[in-house]
Design goal:
Number of helices: 11
Helix content: 10-25%
Strand content: 25-35%
Radius of gyration: 22 Å
CATH architecture of the largest domain: 3-Layer(aba) Sandwich
Shape: globular
CATH topology of the largest domain: Rossmann fold
Number of strands: 19
CATH superfamily of the largest domain: Vaccinia Virus protein VP39
Order of helices and strands: HHHEEHEHEHEEHEEEEEHEHEHEEEHEEE
Structural class: alpha+beta
CATH class of the largest domain: Alpha Beta
Length: 397
């Protein structure tokens, strides 16, 4: 197809066909994606960009940091599928974005349903309101407020979808969801983000879908911290509030003796290995994200598998991080870990143990339970507990 002369409908159909090549879509989601005019929600973007497989940035802070965007079509489709919206339902969206997702939700709920979308930024909601009005969705409710507050006056909701990266799950969302409702959100823990579908049970949420993703962080949830681990700021750790990270003990850890441990596990060049991170977070309290400046990588000071975001483990002033090297077999990479500090070799071995665990079933995701702070976790519940102010996660394989 010549995308320079293709019509919006042709580009939209091409977008949906591309999504279908990698995931199954329910008929109603496919129909909504073919019908709603995505390009009209990103009017400043070239037509081909509107239907390309990438996010379109629409609002930024003064420093250039991304404030709001239109998410990539594949993750939009995947989250809508996991949300399982039915005609006539009430749906709450946290993060209004361009209004495109709300239009898709309104198409799925139909004439008898209700969609409410919320954003904390007035410029974002003004643009979403304008886009929705211009494309035939004046009935979608757009509110300017903190998404953590929800919209109790318009609930209870059958479905809640969050389209910004949430570090915690506010009690308000639990209170405003019907007993058998579903919540789909990009949830951040231990330095990584996964889109998670949670079904509401008597006293907890339970996951039935987990998907790798990346989203603009939700404002007002400063739960992730950053600690520099090199005097010149060439590397840093990103960790959660509940983790005890000794910045003084780690500030020069990369200058300490290096210990490298390689597994027998290899991958081909395009094979994802992100689930190693999930295995680590389900067993090790010290799991964090390491970020290395290109200067540190070039100098060999810090060489994680992916410089900007790789899993690492830290304890008592020592550190180990996930690494790769070319394997002897053509086109393959060997997985391992590099440690620094007195416990560096031990921590690297712990990472390799989880590489081996991942290798047993490379597509397995953990089951995630989420208990509101006021709900006790039954003593027989198995799994690693991660504590946040309003929720406690339990991860288990």
């Amino acid at each position: 197809m010549d995308t320079t002369t293709a019509s919006p409908q042709a580009l939209r159909d091409r977008m949906v066909d591309r999504i279908l090549s990698s995931q199954q879509l329910p008929p109603q989601v496919e129909t909504a994606l073919r019908r709603v005019e995505r390009h009209r929600y990103v009017p400043d973007a070239p037509l081909t960009d509107a239907y390309d497989e990438k996010a379109v940035i629409t609002h930024t802070f003064a420093d250039g940091t991304h404030l709001s965007c239109a998410s990539g079509p594949t993750i939009v489709a995947a989250m809508l599928t996991a949300l399982d919206v039915r005609p006539g339902q009430r749906v709450l969206e946290i993060g209004a974005g361009t209004g495109y997702n709300a239009a898709l939700l309104a198409t799925l709920t139909g004439a008898d349903g209700q969609v409410t979308t919320i954003d904390i930024n007035a410029d974002v909601t003004a643009a979403a309101r304008r886009n929705l009005d211009d494309t035939g969705f004046p009935h979608v409710r757009v509110l300017t407020r903190d998404g953590a507050d929800g919209a109790p006056e318009h609930g209870p909701f059958d479905r809640i979808i969050v389209t910004v990266g949430a570090w915690d799950i506010p009690q308000n969302w639990w209170d405003q969801l019907v007993p058998d409702g579903r919540l789909v959100l990009p949830l951040r823990w231990r330095g990584t983000t996964r889109a998670v579908a949670l079904a509401k049970h008597d006293d907890h949420w339970k996951s039935d879908w987990v998907f790798l993703c990346g989203f603009v962080p939700m404002l007002g949830q400063p739960g992730e911290q950053k600690t520099l681990i090199h005097p010149d700021g060439l590397a840093a750790l990103h960790h959660d509030l509940d983790q005890s990270i000794d910045a003084d003990a780690l500030h020069d850890v990369l200058d300490q003796e290096k210990s490298t441990v390689w597994s027998d596990v290899t991958v081909h060049g395009q094979e994802p290995f992100d689930r190693v991170w999930l295995h680590l977070s389900a067993v090790d309290d010290g799991t964090v994200r390491i970020e290395a400046d290109q200067q540190a990588v070039t100098a060999g000071l810090c060489t994680p598998a992916i410089a900007s975001r790789s899993p690492a483990v830290t304890k008592n002033g020592s550190l180990a991080y996930f690494a790769v090297q070319r394997a002897s077999a053509p086109g393959r990479w060997q997985l391992g870990a590099i440690g620094h500090g007195p416990l560096g070799h031990h921590l690297a071995t712990r990472i390799v143990d989880q590489i081996d665990a991942w290798d047993q079933d490379r597509t397995a995701d953990p089951e995630i339970l989420a208990f509101p702070t006021g709900a006790p976790i039954p003593s027989q519940t198995r799994g690693k507990v991660i504590t946040k102010p309003e929720i406690r996660l339990v991860l288990r394989y």
